[in-house]
Design a protein that fits this description.
Layout lengths: L9 H4 L3 H17 L4 H28 L1 E5 L5 E5 L4
Antiparallel strand pairs: 1-2
Length: about 80
């Protein structure tokens, strides 16, 4: 049930990273409880996949804005794009 090609729904796209992560945590808790029927589990999984993609997109956008300060061989500071290891 890969949702990678599916567009992010407007309600998810409007969420902040924190709100989307909280919603994803709630979905995981429901699925782990085992108290939802199969149809609801499938729907929750699909929404969770979209929330995950949205969170990953927000993180990537934040990483692209971050620069690290480095000191060159000449002792002068400069900035470089941040790359998460």
């Amino acid at each position: 049930m890969d949702k990678a090609g599916e567009a992010i729904p407007a309600d998810i796209a409007a969420m902040s990273f924190e709100a989307a992560l909280k919603a994803l945590d709630e979905i995981v808790a429901k699925l782990e409880s085992g108290r939802v029927d199969l149809e609801e589990s499938i729907a929750l999984y699909g929404r969770g996949a979209l929330l995950k993609r949205h969170c990953e997109s927000k993180l990537k956008a934040a990483e692209e804005k971050i620069e690290k300060i480095v000191v060159g061989a000449d002792g002068q500071p400069s900035t470089q794009p941040f790359k998460a290891d």
